[in-house]
Amino acid sequence: MTWRKLGVIAGGGELPVVLAEHCAATNRPYFVARITPYADAALNAHPGTDNGLGHLGGRMKAMREAGVDAVVLIGQVPRPDVSKLDLDDGAIAMLPAIMAALPQGDDALLRAILNEHERAGFQVVGAEAVMGDLLAPEGVWGAIAPTPAQMKDIIKGAKVAHAIGAFDIAQGVVVRDGHVLALEAAEGTDEMLNRVAALPDALRGTPDNRRGALVKRPKPIQERRIDLPVVGIRTVEGAARAGLAGIAVEAHGALAVRRAEMIAEADRLGLFLYGFTCAEAGDA
Questions:
Q1: pTM of the model
Q2: ∠ CA 57-228-280 to the nearest 5 degrees?
């Protein structure tokens, strides 16, 4: 998979910043298409352009003029209310495909957006194709390994996440001693962990008696070039506040942002980090 110049279409969060920094450090030609107002201010230090969410035509035009031939769609963007978006002519031309996908769920919407970029002549690549060490590895990452009981929570969480993912609901679940404490919905992982942290101590773990696991994996219907599950230091901090014993993600099916720093923080807080395989999860 080769390209001349990469367009980083950047929503919110740390991951687009990490990817842009990687491109700069490795002298890979790149151009950051910042989606305002969501993109991190740190991206202003990189070559690029600023466009609102509904300015798809303007964003593509700027990337073409910059010589971009491949794009990675990365970062957090809230599900839009199309009726309130400021749409440019390019976006209006794409509106029939986007409107048809909206009622079908997030994955269908992302596929429609991906298809429109491909129709416009851009190669769409996954973040891991640009920066291979983003992909979550298999097995124990840090100094702490899940116990057999915690592995049971991980496997149940993997099965539950697979089930809800088939309905295009979400990618995350929290399980403690076999009980499902929370399912991720539209609010995202951080807010789900906040909900768990607000539960009574009798239902969840505590810093002195950590119990349960956050489990994330891709939806079985998912287009894996976009919207893979993401974990990072903030995820570790949220899981710690929720009293969890650790975090598990599908190996090679999730992105781990600044993994070395993530591992150091998990070790410090006493949490395990684990990449489970599809075989361990019992996938058919």
A1: 0.88
A2: 160
Of 75, 100, 130, the position where a domain reaches its end is 130
Q: Is the pLDDT of residue 1 over 70?
A: no
Cα separation, 131 vs 129, in Å, equals 6
**Per the domain annotation, does 92 fall within a domain?**
yes
Helix 259-269 and helix 233-241: axis angle, to 10°?
20
User: Quick one: pLDDT at residue 69?
Assistant: 96
CATH, residue 196:
3.40.140.80
Q: Which of 70, 65, 179, 175 is nearest to 129 (CA)?
A: 70
DSSP-derived secondary structure for the chain? ---S-EEEEE-BSSHHHHHHHHHHHTT--EEEEEEETTS-GGGGGSSEEEEETT-HHHHHHHHHHTT--EEEEESB-PPP-GGGS---HHHHHHHHHHHHHGGG-HHHHHHHHHHHHHHTTPEE--HHHH-GGGBPPSEE-SS----HHHHHHHHHHHHHHHHHHTTT--SEEEEETTEEEEE--TT-HHHHHHHHHTS-TTTS-BTTB---EEEE---TT--TTS---EE-HHHHHHHHHTT-SEEEEETTSSEETTHHHHHHHHHHHT-EEEEE-HHHHT--
Q: Are residues 277 and 139 in the same domain?
A: yes
Predicted confidence (pLDDT) at residue 107 exceeds the cutoff of 80: no
Residue 125 lies in a domain: yes
b vs e for 105-143, b when ≥16 Cβ sit within 10 Å of the residue's Cβ? bbbbbbbbbbbbbeebebbbbbbbbbbeebbbeeeebbe
The answer to whether residue 1 sits within a structural domain is no
Q: Is pLDDT of 152 > 80?
A: yes
Q: Which residue, 116, 50, 107, 53, is CA-closest to 80? A: 53
C-alpha Rg value of the chain to the nearest Å: 19
